[in-house]
Amino acid sequence: MSILVVEDDARSGQMLADLLRGDGFTVEVCASGSSGVERLTRSPAPDVLVTDLRMPQVDGIAVARLARDRSPTMPILLITAYPELAQRLADCAAPSPTIFTKPINYPALVEALSAIQARPRA
Question: pLDDT tens for residues 6-20?
Answer without folding.
Answer: 999 999 999 999 999
